[in-house]
Amino acid sequence: EYCDQSLPSLMEVYLEETLDLVILFEEKKLEEEITYEYQEGVKEDELSLIHF
Question: Could you tell me how many helices (H) and strands (E) the chain has, helices first?
Fold first, then answer.
C-alpha cells in the first residue's frame, strides 16, 4: 500500500523534471538557431561588401 501511494508523487516529480529539461533543451536549440542565422547573415553582409 505504501508503495502505491508514493509512486504517483514520484512520477509527478519525474515528469516535471523531464518537462523542465525538455523546455531548457528547446530554448537552447532556439538560441543556437538564432545565433547560426545571425552568423550566416553576417557572412552574407561581408560578401556583399566585397562585391561593392
Answer: 1, 0
Residue 4: C-alpha distances to residues 8, 17, 32 (Å): 7, 21, 42
Q: Which positions ≥6 away from 8 have C-beta within 8 Å?
A: none
pLDDT at residue 8 greater than cutoff 60: yes
- Please count the other Cβ atoms lying within 10 Å of the Cβ belonging to residue 31: 10
Side chain identity at 22, as an amino acid letter?
Answer: V
Kindly list the distances between the CA atom of residue 17 and the CA atoms of 14, 23, 27, 44, in Å, as whole numbers in the listed order.
5, 10, 15, 41
Cell of 14: 519525474
